[in-house]
Amino acid sequence: MNDPAVLIAGAGPTGLTAAMELSRLGVDVRIVDRAGAPSATSRALGIQARTVELLRPRGVGDELLRLGNRANATALYATGGKLTEIELHRMASDFNYVLLLDQSETERVLTEQLGRQGVKVERGVEVTALQQHDDSVAVHLRAGDGQSEIVRPRYVIAADGAHSVIRKATGVSFEGRQLSHSYVLGDLSLTGDVPEDQLSIFLGRRGFLAVFPMGAGRFRFMATDPDGLTGDAGDPTLAGIQQLYDRTAALPARLAGLRWSSRFRINSRHAAHLRAGRVFLGGDAAHVHSPAGGQGMNAGIQDMVNLSWKLALVLAGRARPELLDTYESDRLPVIRDLVTMTERATAAFNSTSPLAHAALTRLAPLVLARIRLQRKAADRLGQLSAGYRGAPLSADGGRIGKLRAGDRIPDAAVVTVDGEHRRLHDLLDLSGPTLLVFGDDEPLRTGLSTAVTVRRLASAPALTADPAAWLLARPDGYLAAAGTAADADRLRRWVKRWLTPDTP
Ligand SMILES: Cc1cc2nc3c(=O)[nH]c(=O)nc-3n(C[C@H](O)[C@H](O)[C@H](O)COP(=O)(O)OP(=O)(O)OC[C@H]3O[C@@H](n4cnc5c(N)ncnc54)[C@H](O)[C@@H]3O)c2cc1C
Q1: Is the pLDDT of residue 366 over 90?
Q2: What is the mean pLDDT of residues 3-15?
Q3: Residue 1: pLDDT above 70?
Q4: How far is it, in rounded angstroms, from Cα 303 to Cα 286?
Q5: Measuring from atom 21 of ligand 1, which residue has the nearest CA?
Q6: Residue minimizing CA distance to atom 51 of ligand 1
Q7: Regarding the domain delimited by 177-267, which CATH topology (the fold level of the hierarchy) does it fall under?
């Protein structure tokens, strides 16, 4: 086998996204996974709006949308009845719901797309060790048949999960702790009053319980069990789960058809760094946390969408190597925030203190009665509000309307100079920055790299009314810089700082 430009360890959602993105961008990749077959264990269910926005133009979103079940709200109940709900339809996205799909299905869809792009996952092959050199990494691979091999890629992506061998080999610390709660999980059918178009969360005085509708009467059940109603060892039984349900859930239901059940504990940790020399850490190898809010897999996918265009441009000699440092400076603050947010939500939902329970059940309806806070909560769950303001790649980037450099660019309706009515996201180049210019683009072209695609717009009322405005969009749909004709120097500075000069 050849030495690829990038070796990806792990074919979970993170590694598969990296392989799909990099191969789409023309990078020679190999992706290996220790497991001999795709994982059948069910974990992530929730695909968030931002993930759908990013995956759709990359060829897999429509299939995920076809397969998944849509939940339009997250409803909160106390034992006495419904308290309130987070109205996901208020999200500022076309995909204003959470898409529920078994992680093994999401992985299958990603693997099939990868296959269409000419890359096959090498299964039963594990990374056992690595050494970093000036221009490559020596990666030791061992196949299931005992054969070993050393490959020398220029870069390595560690997507090898929470117990990452690669993270340990690089010496990057994994800071955090194990949370005390143990969770019960089950896949079952449910007959009763539980709606199939919402996530239902029941806040009990002794722990919480959530049911996720998977479509066709199937539900995923997840609960804490502080009093051990389901026992404390072995897979929970249907009778035990029903007992837990009856004690906590405000909507009566009969549970049946248990396909599988299990227990798990949660760690809440993140890597101190996302880059160690030529190695990049992403997904669970870089962050693990409570499943509250269904964020983990989504974060891993978005890690790789952030990293891949940067790696591809640097490998093609079109961007400066420093661009690779911005993977960590973009993503680490988002990850820290996610770990804190999920820890807080988990602590609030699981508190067995009567005072804390009373505060939560009284406060939640009051807070969520405000439309502004509804929108904020929905955008946060959908990972639409996470962005890179203040990061080096957004520094000195200016603003356009309410958007600041580092923000996600909304999918606004625009009219091109040719009079075409389009959506902004459809105009973005997914391989390099796109300069969107209202008015005369000639003054902005001086010193511009050919890595930048230029598109001329006549209007985008939701973004700006300034006829001389421009904005520079990154391939992952975040604002790199913006201004008006008078700020042409800002554009030139961004291009000079991050991209390499064109060779004549
Ligand atoms: C019960 C539960 C519910 C969850 N619900 C959600 C949810 O609703 N939404 C959400 O976003 N997230 C959720 N998550 C989190 C989500 O499952 C993970 O964040 C996601 O699987 C991470 O993907 P990954 O590709 O980074 O790692 P993994 O899925 O762990 O994949 C790592 C891969 O690396 C391979 N590997 C390991 N070591 C090596 C090696 N040395 N060499 C080669 N290959 C190796 C493994 O075989 C594996 O295939 C949930 C997690 C749990 C436990």
Answers
A1: no
A2: 98
A3: no
A4: 10
A5: 297
A6: 43
A7: Alpha-Beta Plaits (3.30.70)
